[in-house]
Amino acid sequence: MDVFASVGREARALWGGGRGTSLVTIAVGWGMLNGTRMTFPVLLPYLRDAFDLGLAVAGLLVSVLWLGSAVGQLPGGIVADRYSERLVMSASTFAVAAALAVVAVAPTPVVLFAATGLVGLGQSLYPIARITSLSHIYPDRIGSALGVTMATGDLGQTVLPPVVGVLAGVLAWQAGLVALIPLFVATGVAIWVVLPVQDRSARSNGLPLAESARGVAVQLRRPNMAFMVFILFLYIFVWQSFTGLYPTYLVQEKGLSSAVVGVLFSLFFALGVVVKPLSGAAYDRVGMRWSLVLVLVGPTVGFALLPSVDGFWPLAAVTGLVSTMLGSGAVTQSFLSDAFPRELRGTGLGTVRTTAATLGATGPVLFGTVADAGYFDEGYLVLAALMAGTALLAFLSPRS
């Protein structure tokens, strides 16, 4: 009963003072962006047929999307600090809407790749602005507010891919993307109207960029930080390799229909709604080492079993094992947020996330190349080894 009462009090505090509408608006935008990004892997089989793409080239398309999603995070955070978060987030949703329209009418693979990169670039403007905006709205409850948006992100990744997959199967691959365009436009308008206008004179522009860069470089030279950034890169590399081509693998190697694949892919993210808060709580109680090791055991076993498993329910069980890797983000981001001084937190997190995600974006194209060479199953065994190595690095990471 005390637990339910505590949850109720927290919910009332988040909604009170007229702040709840802003939280919901930001969270909806985040859920749509995350969900839309994960529709591309579901659409890959259709895009391969429509544009005659091999697995390596299809993997490159996902890498372009992830690269775009990475490179704009640091600039987006800098612009949000110095101008307006609602401007950056509105621009993000409008840019994604425009890019999706180009993807839907792309006549050639070149246009498809360029438009997909713009989808990622538009998405990359949102994450840091989301965090800094919520920190202004909820100076005393930023953790809870971020938890709500993270859960909504997983909800978007759970709902949108199967919906777009069904529309692709019933109508055309463009149908789901076109349906998202007016929703993004409406979300951008809502962000601009609902979010409070901040007083420019009251905004802090923080340290000069050169001084911030030097401070971040000093922090990253600490042994534990260097270890954690490398661990984050390995995790992102594996996660993007898996999510980028898993639907294609299930269709091509396991013989499942696109509709069933959409359900399994959504299950992966649906379990993240549970895994992420549990992982964050584990970090608070047992620290980075054991919490990270625990969430990486599942994917290590799941990737190793995947080549030998067939049928919906066994594949659902393996997907559930792999989904525990989603808790890694709650652990690594909590650690990095705690490790950076307050005055360097935004620039530091933006630098780390942009660097790790940019390097990790090479995963899908490399994995696709391996699959194109006829080693799809063996690729998952390599991912299992990388997950095991990441867990070992986490356990051996220095304390300071």
Please give a handful of descriptors for the protein shown.
400 residues, mainly alpha, Growth Hormone, Chain: A, 20 helices, 83% helix, 0% strand, globular
Write the layout of secondary structure elements.
Elements lengths: L1 H14 L4 H18 L1 H13 L3 H17 L1 H10 L2 H21 L3 H16 L1 H12 L4 H29 L2 H22 L14 H12 L2 H30 L5 H13 L1 H15 L1 H18 L6 H12 L3 H13 L5 H16 L1 H11 L3 H21 L4
Helix pairs in contact: 2-8, 2-9, 2-10, 3-9, 3-12, 4-7, 4-12, 4-18, 4-19, 5-6, 5-8, 5-18, 6-7, 6-8, 6-10, 9-10, 9-13, 9-14, 12-13, 12-17, 12-18, 12-19, 12-20, 13-16, 14-15, 14-17, 15-16, 15-17, 15-20, 19-20
Q: What is shown here, in short?
A:
The protein is mainly alpha-helical and 400 residues long. The chain contains 20 helices and no strands.
Number of strands: 0
Fill in the CATH topology: Growth Hormone, Chain: A
Q: In percent, how much strand structure appears in the residues? A: under 5%
Look at the structure and name the CATH superfamily.
Answer: MFS general substrate transporter like domains
The assigned CATH architecture is: Up-down Bundle
Query: SSE order in H/E notation?
Result: HHHHHHHHHHHHHHHHHHHH
Termini separation comes to 40 Å
What's the main sheet like? none
By DSSP (H or I, 4+ residues per run), the number of helices equals: 20
Low-confidence blocks of residues: none
Q: Which structural category fits the helices and strands?
A: mainly alpha
Total discrete domains = 1
Gyration radius (Cα, Å) is 20 Å
CATH class: Mainly Alpha
Envelope shape:
globular
* Overall average residue pLDDT: 81
Amount of helix: over 70%
